[in-house]
Amino acid sequence: MDAELKIKQQPVVLIVDDSTANLAVMSQLLESEYKVKVAVNGEKALKIASSERPPDLILLDIMMPGMDGYEVCRRLKADPVSRDIPVLFLTSQDEAEDERRGFEAGAVDYIAKPARPLILFARVKTHLALKAAADFLRDQNIFLEQEVDRRTLEVMAIQDVTIMVMASLAETRDNETGNHILRTQYYVRALAEQLRDHPRFSAYLSERNILMLFKSAPLHDIGKVGIPDAILKKPGRLTAEEFEIMKDHARLGRDAIAHAEQVLGIDVEFLRTAKEIAFAHQEKWDGSGYPEGLVGDAIPISARLMALADVYDALISRRVYKEPMPHEEALGIIRNGRGQHFDPDIVDAFLVIAERFREIAARYVDSDDDLARKQRQFS
């Protein structure tokens, strides 16, 4: 059993030479330490090198009929299966030009023919040890890359779950359903993708920032968890005093997310975007919004995108207290808000892709069960 295991663990050396006499001599020299395979031409050598159990090292004659050693080596190095196998040329030639051609083809060393046993063993042992070290480092790198990918996916999953839990918490205190969260996520992404090449937005709307927008959008109303039930669940219009309290949800949302960052002790990219959206999505282009009355480009792009997405969804969605507005009517209201409530260029982008908004709304439409559940919460 031990002998069998030892044979299986022996490095495999492939000898390629058109001389059967040379093959026999070199095989006898090496087979006491290594598993030896032989090939009498380049075609057979390439086949063995690409087999299920490729050799660990190749001793390759240069001068062979048909495909010479240089060409065999070039093909070995061009194949991902065999490119990492060290090739040692066997040659009786010692011209500098021959050495240059060999190294350019991908060989790592030369052994002069006829091979002297001590030199042959030393060179083979050295290059097998180097290959083993290179294989170990490559395997370690692959493992580390896979581990980094796995950990990255874990972190992203934790982020996504955290966002959805926080957003769902806000949804339980709001008269909007959970589908509102999904719809506004996709509206914002659709707008961002439409504007990514626009000169006013291209510097900000990178692929990464669009992903951050998509992840952060569900937290736009997280601050409503801090609004008293008497105001948040009031079925009729709010008084001026009540509306002032309701407006505070923007600040509460930003502060809650900022507190989460402080607890983490690090600056988290998607939370930075979430703070912008939570705090400024009720601002209006003309300065008539809240909480700070920001005007125009002073409003973060993320919040400007969310402002339009949020209003559109409020208009076309059923609520326990209202019927949905037709899509075309909602388009008219948003068009009329161009340059007043909304960034003009964002409105223009919305009008181009309005049909995508309609499709998103249909995909995540509120069911009767959703509305009944929400009505029970607010009754």
Describe the structure in your own words:
By secondary structure, the protein is of the alpha/beta class. The protein has 2 domains: 2-143, Rossmann fold, CATH 3.40.50; 173-378, Hypothetical protein af1432. 60% of the residues lie in helices and 6% in strands. It has 17 helices and 5 strands. The protein has helices at 2-9, 20-30, 42-49, 69-78, 96-105, 117-172, 178-195, 207-216, 229-232, 240-247, 249-264, 269-280, 301-316, 327-336, 344-352, 354-363, 368-378; strands at residues 12-16, 35-39, 57-61, 87-91, 109-112. A 5-stranded parallel β-sheet has the order 2-1-3-4-5, with helices on both faces. α4 (69-78) links the parallel β3 (57-61) and β4 (87-91). α7 (178-195) runs antiparallel to α16 (354-363) and α8 (207-216) packs across α12. Mean pLDDT is 86; it is low at 1-7.
Topology:
Layout lengths: L1 H8 L2 E5 L3 H11 L4 E5 L2 H8 L7 E5 L7 H10 L8 E5 L4 H10 L3 E4 L4 H56 L5 H18 L11 H10 L12 H4 L7 H8 L1 H16 L4 H12 L20 H16 L10 H10 L7 H9 L1 H10 L4 H11 L1
Parallel strand pairs: 1-2, 1-3, 3-4, 4-5
Helix pairs in contact: 3-4, 7-8, 7-13, 7-16, 8-12, 11-12, 12-13, 13-14
Task: Give a quick set of tags describing it.
60% helix, 2 domains, alpha/beta, five-stranded parallel β-sheet, Rossmann fold, 17 helices, 379 residues, single chain, elongated, Hypothetical protein af1432
Count of DSSP E strands?
5
Fraction of residues in H or I helices: 55-70%
CATH class of the largest domain: Mainly Alpha
The tally of domains stands at: 2
Biggest beta sheet attributes: 5 strands, parallel
Overall body shape: elongated
CATH superfamily of the largest domain: Hypothetical protein af1432
Output mean pLDDT: 86
Order of helices and strands: HEHEHEHEHEHHHHHHHHHHHH
- What's the arrangement of strands in the largest beta sheet? 2-1-3-4-5
| Strand content bin | 5-15%
**How many DSSP helices?**
17
And the CATH topology of the largest domain? Answer: Hypothetical protein af1432
CATH architectural grouping of the largest domain: Orthogonal Bundle
What radius of gyration results from the CA coordinates? Answer: 35 Å
Distance between the termini: 78 Å
**Low-confidence parts lasting 5 or more residues at pLDDT below 50?**
1-7
Derived structural class: alpha/beta
